[in-house]
Amino acid sequence: MIDLKLLAYLESFLTDSRKEKFTTVLSQRTKHFTVAVEDVYQLHNTSAVIRSCDVFGLQEVNIIEERNSKRIDREIAMGAQKWVDFNRFQSATDCMASLKQNGYQIVATTPHANDCLLHDFDVSKKSCFFFGSETEGLSEAVLKNADCFLKIPMVGFTESLNISVSAAIILQHVTTQLRLSSSNWQLTPEELLEKRLDWIKKTIKSYDDIVARFYAK
Hints:
Layout: H1 4-11, H2 16-26, E1 33-38, H3 43-55, E2 60-64, H4 74-77, E3 85-89, H5 92-101, E4 105-109, E5 116-117, E6 127-131, H6 140-145, E7 148-151, H7 163-180, H8 189-201, H9 207-216
Parallel strand pairs: 1-2, 1-6, 2-3, 4-6, 4-7, 5-7
Helix pairs in contact: 3-7
């Protein structure tokens, strides 16, 4: 349970413009959609996907590190890693089990015989978009357990896009359609309070000392 008096006290250390920015950004945040990045080898690709998640309002990113260990490239992510939450998994199976438990359908972003074109995608369903490694794509585990296969329409000679480009195109489209829909996509009141406190903690210097002084009064 968030201590509202503490939250109000901590917000007094923020500028009005920073508080307004937090309010504006949080009003557009969602957990209705999330992304899973599976064993992406190139560090800048994972970081760029995280940046797109922040830009288009996704609050959570799932990183699967079965083979390739990740660290966030701060230059590419442009600070997005500060505002987006990470869920880390050692296998795609564990990741999918967690997502399913939280009501997400598994969406494999790869060409498939029974795929769905991007403009036909049903945004009302709570979904996690899976993106695979640069050379091998998504694992068999994801392909066998996917609820939906999503494809970006392409009309040129090239048959695929870079993972970070694909993620940006997909997220821009689905989040735009989601906000035009009647779906209940925004964060809950409790989630909003939790994020306000979390972002303040990441913004204020000497956070622990300030909190200690508050409770010492």
